[in-house]
Amino acid sequence: MGLLLGLTGLSLPALAQDTSAAGDTILVFDASGSMWGQIDGVPKITIARDVVKELLDDLPPERRLGLVAYGHRRKGDCKDIQTLVPVGGDRAAIAKAIAGMNPVGKTPMTAAVQQAAEALKFTENEATVILVSDGQETCNADPCAAAEKLATMGIGLTVHTVGFGLGEEEAGAKGELKCMADATGGRFFVADDAKELKDALAQISVAPSKKSKTAEPAPAKAEPAPAPEPAAIPTGKASLEATDQQGGPVIRQDLVWTVRHGATGEVLHESDATGKLEVELPRGVHDVSVVRGSDGATAEGEIKLTGDRASLSLPLVVELKATLKVPATAAAGSKVRVIWTGPGEGNDYISVGPADAGNSKHANYTRTKDGNPLQLLMPPTAGTYEVRYVSAKNHDVLTRESIDVTEVGASVEVPAKAPAGSTLRVAWTGPDYANDYISVAKVGSAGRSEVNYTRTSAGNPLKLLMPAEPGPYEVRYVQSQSHKILASQPIETTKVSATLDAPDSGVSGTRIKVSWTGPDYANDYVSIAKVGSAGRSEVGYQRTSRGSPLELTLPDDPGTYELRYVQNQTHRILASKPVTVTAAP
């Protein structure tokens, strides 16, 4: 932010003539949480973004820029420092990086300045760091001592600092920023708003370099000019990686890399037992080879280094073999025994899927680490399928075998009618796979839309609770895998009734006798409740299992109530009778 904002107010010709300020410069951008603070109702981070957008196009082309930010990724982390754009990077990338920042963290500005200086190779070259901060160091570092050390080590390091939007309570921050600038011969400014920030950075942008400040005196007489040094060969960073198989995971260790000059064949770099690699190479086209120590697998390629960076990924491809032994046919939903040979690495798996589907599509699978032979669940629907050995590295199918999946049958035996809420004994036939069940559901509903169900593991015949609401239903045999309906029979549940006989009134807190008739299903109950309330909103109740008549205690509050017979399943009210509760004398 500092460097980019600092060019406001300068015309393009003026910038182009400012050769004394040209050179390699890194902006250290404060993206700590305090940047959400406001100046005249506008967040400081928003001011920074707006100015960058306005002024980026005015930068002279010879100015090589870089961007370091801190506090933009994690809360409370003093190591949250990142070089987002290296020196000489694309200016559009700088603008994009700043526009996308979300201030959240602490203020490790000392370590950030040190990282920027090292990136500029400040012990070898003149270097300029511009720090714009809205707060004090918060990561237990001494900015003044660090700046003095950097000034001693570097041959021409200058740190310019700007305190942006500092309040009166930020005297400590002003002192830290000033001493960093003073120690390195830089300039320190305080900016309370966007205009002052722009003005301060405009002055920084034209500050003379240290070389221009201390010009060498002219020699007494001309001396022969030294022989020109050979021009430096431009270089760039080459990032090299290898993957285990085509499209597989990146290999992290046990690799030997060799890089040879593309024209001369000269060895430019050799490494031993590493993984991913980053190496500085002359620009051009070079030959790269890699060998894995564990099995001798090799790969070759070339890298074209035409700019500051280039990358190359080489797959180490080794032929993997596998075999499968499976039955020719199997019942839908059954488990088959599969004998296999193959790499058996990590998360390799044996799968079953449609023969005409892609290699990565399967109905079920079992990891090879689960044993040999292993059990593989067949799809619930009949058809022609493939059993496959799949390498988990890149999902390559190493071998496959065809298998025909056949239909399985089932049946259920139920009466045509049954009282609503009653429990039936259901005889059934079927595969009895794990978690298969007999259900009762509304006609035409999906396989898992049951009202009630019982697992087939409960026996044959088994008990099945009918719905409390009268109407047409289906009793079904449902295969648990994908909830496939194997068989169904219609059944109609008929209405059940109940009656209540009790006094019309009683004194609050006393007990009355209530005679009843009804289905007496498990946990049915007789209750007293407020008129119009839901079926389970009782004031008091007694289970019908206690017999008839039973006794209920009347509420303490006088008023009109209802006595009810309630069917426990869904708390359906089968009968009701009003009762008046009077106050005790």
TrEMBL record:
Gene3D superfamilies recorded: von Willebrand factor, type A domain (3.40.50.410)
Chain intervals for the UniProt region annotation (Disordered): 207-233
A Pfam family that the UniProt record links to this protein: VWA_2
SMART domains from the UniProt entry: VWA
Boundaries of every VWFA domain copy: 24-204
Alphabetical list of InterPro entries matching this protein: VWF_A, vWFA_dom_sf
Name under which the protein is recorded: VWA domain-containing protein
